[in-house]
Amino acid sequence: MISKDKQTLTWWEMRALQAINIEDIDFPDIVALDKEEQIILIAEVKGLPFNFQENKAKKYAILRLIDYLQAAKIAIPFAMLVDINKTLIFQWDGNNLSEPIVSLNTGDVLSHYEPKFRDKRIFSLYLKGLTEAWLRDLAYHWKSAISPFTKEMTEIGLLQLLEDGRTQLY
Q1: Distances (CA, A) of 110 to 5, 24, 38, 79, 113
Q2: What percentage of the chain carries pLDDT values higher than 90?
Q3: Higher-pLDDT residue of 13, 103
Q4: What is the SS3 string spanning 76-107?
Q5: Gap between the Cα atoms of 51 and 84, Å rounded
Q6: Could you tell me if residue 107 is inside a domain?
Q7: Is residue 24 part of a domain?
Q8: I need a surface site. Which of 44, 61, 97, 151 has the fewest CB within 10 A?
Q9: Is 0.70 topped by the overall pTM?
Q10: Looking at residues 88-115, what average pLDDT do you find?
């Protein structure tokens, strides 16, 4: 997005301009923006048959998050990994990605939006949609006055940034 103040392009816009084919563009699965359209969170989401329980897969996913965060050239305070078992939220200080500051059971989070979450095979696209539904619910309470894990999101400062913001799926 073009910043109104700086008239600069984000890393993702630069990649889009440089790409020969749209398939060459690599984006995080979900991007959350605050009410001023600043990116506040990026997320990698993997549904069946993939997950981040295997150390190699988790390490690779974290390296992808760090690549996105470094390439963005702006301070994106949060990053998230989501699979069918765990939702991990990290903080980014501009140089280092923290250990997970919040670890949630994904079923506990998303069964509010899909009551049969634990009984179904949840593939990546559906998991992305459910995760986005949760983030949007946190942002503007479309489903619940108090969204799942509101307290935890408030304690880390993410809820305040999400309020009145929006999300984008890639």
Answers
A1: 37, 31, 25, 18, 5
A2: 71
A3: 103
A4: CCEEEEEECCEEEEEEECCCCECCCCEEEEHH
A5: 7
A6: yes
A7: no
A8: 151
A9: yes
A10: 96
